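Exam review. A common question shows you a sequence with its structure tokens and asks you to describe the fold in words. Practice with the pair below. Do the first one on your own.
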Amino acid sequence: MFMKSLSVIALLTAGANAHFRLLHPGARGNYNGSQLHEFCGGHTEVTTNRTEFPLSGGVVHVRQGHEKWYANIVVSTAPNPNSNESFEANGEPQYVVFEAYEEKPGNFCIPVDFAASGIAGLEEGANVTISVNLFDDESSYFQCADLTLSSTAEVPACVNATAEPSDGHGTPTGSGAAPSGTGAPGEDGDDEDEDAGALSNFKGATLLGAAMGLVGVAFAL
């Protein structure tokens, strides 16, 4: 009975940790749900197996299990970014996506346009790292991906949890772009046959205060 109870507790703990998965591009290191609250999901070293990612029209594919959540994506051009400061310029986070907000759980693709960000160093052939930071009403979660920017990189087809299949790029209905003035997969085995799409709601203005507070805490860790 005791061992059965431990098994149940282990299953519940695993479910509680399964709040957030970065499915595309491939996340840095092996997935560990208990480390999602740490910088880059507990992985501080850059990987040599980088994912090619487009300069424009790219999507970041995530899965999350909460309602009313939003994501920020910051970028680093450092060769081996291993701290939050690596994703900053002049003390400010280098956002490529700011407050991409959604009210439902499931799979989603967040549109990313490096070329339009205005951040120095985001150019053809550049090796960069993104940190995908997801926030809900309970906590914050972090995963990173090491990329090589390429204008010929393929964009996977996408459909989100709240929309019909799109043409493969997904189109946001509002503004989840980086704010001006800022210097602007996990491996489940079943991830490959799961699709995602552009976030259906971008309501950054309504959560600005809360987001900046959480981002400040995250970058202070």
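Now try the second one, then compare your answer with the model answer below.
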Amino acid sequence: MAIFALALSILALFLGPLLVVISRRRRWPLDLADGFVLVSVVALVLIEVLPLCFEAAGAIIIPLALVGLLLPTVMERLRLHGAGKAHNLALYFGILGLCIHGVIDGAGLSLFSDGGQDAQGGGLSLTLAITLHRLPEGLAIWWLLRPTHGRRGAFTALIATALATLIGFGAGSQLAPVVDASLLGSFGALLAGALLHVVMHGPTPASGPKRDSRMGALGALLGALLVYVVGSVSQFHPDGLEQSHSGGILDGFLALSLESAPYLLLAYVVAGFVHALLPKATIDWISRGRSPIQAIKGLAFALPLPICSCGILPIYRGLVGRGVPLAAAMTLLVAAPELGFDAVFLSVTLLDGPFAIARVVAATLLALLVGIVLARWCGRTPGVVSAGDAPPEAPEGPLLSRLTAGLRVGLGEMVDATAPWILVGLLIAAFAAPLVEKDWIGLLPPWSEVPFFALLGLPVYVCASGATPLAAVLVAAGASPGAALAFLLTGPATNVTTFGVLTSIHGRRTAVLFALLVGATAILLGIAVNIFLPTASTVIGAEDGHIDMPTGTLAWTCLGGLGLLFLLSLARQGPRVFLRHLFSLPDDPEHCDDPCHSDSHSHG
């Protein structure tokens, strides 16, 4: 199998230039391949490879995977400071890096195809991931070298990378007998992070036919089908170990999806109706009254907005630029992503009613307190940005046309913004559910749970709906309701991008006060919830991490409808734009339509 995998990986490397030639006239083969490679490699790494590495090496694989993912990005950004003649030198270093990466790929193929990890059912997954990601590597080499060094230079680099892969393969076969499981798991995690970097930052041509998002979506579906087949086949592995990984994760993901689908569909419809029927609050109306009144109006204005953490920042910038008082704007900044209908309904189904009520009350108090206190401390800080980004206006006209327009928002724009977060949240919850039995949260002192999870949520970039399944897993694992609530409060309300935008508009003092106030208030509210709501129930089994599979026609029908909405969103945007809500993925360098992406690059 190892020789066959090696041959396929080298063949995939040389398929890249062929796709470039074909895409000069027809773009769809390139988009199809891009969607397929992006989804299949990311899913294989997250569902198959990293869980096995975690079992072999422990928690050390997390920072190693992050190093593999982020180190190339840091090096690329450092190279951007050079210009002119330095460009060629940077290009040569980049090709050298790809050759070194080829050595690592070859060693990985040798070690994992017929080596120790194959005996545990993980070799097939990593071998597939390594082989598939060679396609964007070949594309990268051709796009970088063909314009400046011609075909001969590009082919020379491809051949050098292939030879480096052969060298790594030979070295790996010599190391296989003496490498232990923990070292192999650590190496696999580093390689997995590098694989994610390559596929998520795959280059795209700056000219040529327009990107075909539908073909990209089709490729993504084919990639997901491949992952499903690999997971299904691995369930029948002779030693049965793989069932605890991909098979269990996919089963848990399906169970959580069935449980959540009816409530998510209802949330999208309700959000559309509210957006259509609730009268639009004017800037003058929001500005009347003292800070507490303005904060309440900002809260009312935030409730019907179909936006998540990413979408609120352009709206906030636009409102401040148009003179909206700080109390109202800050309240809206916190409340809009915290109080989404989808997140509230998910709290009801994945946790319970009392916890959902506590979440709504706590988020409301947090938003109002942040708006009022910051208005008192910082005053009305003049906006220094243009009002280019205005909040979505409520539709006008006859009732039927308003409802139709509202549903377009609820079933369209809101799905586009939240679907990636929901999928990732459900996937993380399914991945973490089997770890419930590890009782790792019990290692934390009881007094530190709430502060720990509140501080954990401050810098991360997470949607409220995507964080809800993870909160359910935390509760099932033994975390207190207050700890889960503290994470749900700080996660959607704050992240590194939020701090950067606040600093650019209001100054560093306001950004620091915002972070301190949100963190401290979330801790106090979490402690209060633990006093009045010491326990909370969840659909995830607290004893063994098993997720009960819902039955019935309604759940499957709603899941089909929700899946259709997500597929339409994927077809509208394409896989890279779809996932850009989660990561800063490059699309077309000269055509960036996503406001969150452009904002992060222009003002981050």
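Model answer, second protein: The mean pLDDT is 74. The CA atoms of residues 67 and 422 lie 26 Å apart. Full marks require stating both points clearly.
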